[in-house]
Amino acid sequence: MSDASITPTPKLWRLTLARALKRPTILVPGLILLVMVLGAVFAPVIAPNPSGLDAMNRMQPPSAVDIFGTDQFGRSVFERTLHGGRVSLFVGCVVAIFVTVIGVSIGLVSGFVQKLDPYIMRVMDAIMSIPTILLAIAFMAIFGAGVTNAIIAIILPEVPRMARVSRGVTLSIRERPYIEAAITNGARPFRLLWRHVLPVIVAPVLVQATYVFASAVLTEAILSFLGAGAPPEIPSWGNIISEGRTLFQVAPWVIIAPGICLSLLVLSVNTLGDGMRDLLDPKLKRQTQ
Amino acid sequence: MFAYFIKRLLAAVPTLIIVAFAVFMMLELSPGDPAELIAGDTATPEQIAAIRAQLNLDQPFVARAVAWVGQLGTGDLGVSLYTRIPVSELIAQRIEPSLVLTVVTILLATFIGIPLGVLAAVRVGSILDRIVMFISVLGFSVPVFIVGYALVLIFATNLGLLPAQGYSPLSDGLWGTLRAVIMPAFALGGVYMAQIARVTRAAMLEVLSEDYVRTARAKGVKSTIILFRHALPNAAIPIVTVIGFGVGAMLGGVVVTETVFNIPGLGRLAADSILRRDYPVIQALTLIFAFIYVAVNLAVDLSYGFFDPRVRAWGKGGHA
């Protein structure tokens, strides 16, 4: 990507960004995400005491003091929810990055090395035939709970989908004349993939990465909800809801705030992905030009 | 058609073998000695040695893998470490609620999702279309447990219409079972319904722009007949495909749904087994769920032949 001849010039980037911000499906979820990221980054400043017990103020409904109310230990749901966002965003980012790198590598190899393709894809199909949550659960049961293990457990089932997307695009451009020309000119395999194939698959991969992000946030919340994700001392949206669930018919506010944040984050990221797909899809772009 | 059937069946075999191998590998890759892991913290060295012999840990890796798959072939899924009951027996005890829940969910998602998608396609761009599409995006984004608790809060806590938790076996009457399962099925089926509605809408939009639909309209065929006799069967292949793929996510969701609603099924068993680190149960459940997924998708592949005569004639499926 560092090569000036293949990356879009800065002007084109600015143009694309300007066009992106005109779309409500990118602008609105983008703003929501920005607020959430800021909240997560400054959580230690805004909410310094998410684990502070207060026996006098247990299960208080939302009020001016605690805008999201307090839980059964008197902890502020607002502070805990803010900190929970850190776990979700962190897991989402790390998973999206790793899945992209691993999945795209597998997809490129599979798309270009015809001899390996059927074997690689068979293995990917097999992994995809195990339900995501179950594969993650099996992993957590064996390796133990924790954020790091949760991240690995979520990466595992997401990789095949990314591999499929990048393989599909690779296959579709493999027979193009410019690829043949590069091969005829003696481009080495690595250079070929890096300079001629990778730039083309950036757009669909980026879109898929946002879906991976959304899915990772959901799966992490589910793992934490089942007690297999973040440990109790680290508040995450999943374990806040899990702790609040026994009392939710009496004190529903404990699970409402993290529930809404979780849904809003996933909804925003999914919408952003759709918006980016519409923006970056070359076919749609050609139609509008 | 028969050749097609055999071909699809054979294609599923390597997938299942790889799944079985992957499940086997998981325990193999776990940190530490699997025998000690399985024996637990309180085990004596003799017990560990016994387990090691039982697992053939003294044998070479490949021999162990083959032995494990062979064991599966005879229906032996091992013994639960926590309850000391054979896993196959545990599963037999717990299978009914999960089976009822998944069947009701698939039926609900299909019979609500498809009509919603058709409606959205017919009135494309209308408010109805937008509402359906918005609900379907919501369905993708709101986690099962949030929908579950929201439903409980509305229909059980506030309105008192349905039981908040638990399951009522079929032997105690179908009505009680349905009352217990309807909320979990809606919570679990939300995403699924959303996917089906989206794909139905897209497939119908494509089919409705075909020449034969215009011809039928020009002939004065009733619009309901055009929709359900001419268009829907031709839009069927992507719809049944998404029904098949969706089963995977739905099966995973069973774990969460049964935890939220306190249903004593296979999903609850899986959730409980994580914290107990009951590997044989987790391994068996992973295998069973993967097996169901592969079987459903095999059925979907076969249904292509039913919906599309060309598949029958060519003897190969529309997708790899």
What's the gist of this structure?
The complex is a heterodimer of chains A (289) and B (320). With 289 residues, chain A is an all-alpha fold.
Low-confidence stretches of chain B: 315-320
Helix vs. strand class of chain A: mainly alpha
Major β-sheet annotation of chain B: none
- Radius of gyration of chain A in whole Å, from Cα? 22 Å
Tally of strands of chain B: 0
Assembly category = heterodimer
Mean pLDDT metric of chain B = 83
Mean pLDDT of chain A: 83
Q: Tell me the fraction of residues in β-strands of chain A, as a range.
A: under 5%
Distance between the termini of chain B: 17 Å
How can the largest sheet of chain A be summarized?
A: none
What portion of the residues of chain B fall into strands of 2 or more residues?
under 5%
- Gyration radius of chain B, to the nearest Å? 24 Å
Shape of chain B from CA axes? globular
Principal-axis shape of chain A equals elongated
Q: Give the helices and strands of chain B as they follow along the chain.
A: HHHHHHHHHHHHHH
**What is the share of helical residues of chain A?**
over 70%
Number of distinct beta strands of chain A: 0
Stretches of chain A where pLDDT falls below 50 for ≥5 residues?
A: 1-5, 284-289
Descriptive account of the structure:
The complex is a heterodimer of chains A (289) and B (320). Chain A has 289 residues and is mainly α. Chain A contains twelve helices and no strands. In chain A, helix 4 runs parallel beside helix 7 (147-174) and helix 6 (132-143) packs across helix 7 (147-174). The longest helix of chain A has 37 residues, at 189-225. Chain B has 320 residues and is mainly alpha-helical. Chain B has helices at 2-29, 34-39, 45-54, 61-73, 87-122, 127-141, 144-158, 174-208, 211-219, 223-234, 236-260, 266-276, 279-307, 309-314. In chain B, helix 7 (144-158) packs across helix 8 (174-208) and helix 8 (174-208) runs antiparallel to helix 11. The two termini of chain B are 17 Å apart. The model of chain B is unreliable at 315-320 (pLDDT under 50). At the A-B interface, helix 5, helix 6, helix 9 and helix 11 of A face helix 1, helix 6, helix 7, helix 11 and helix 12 of B.
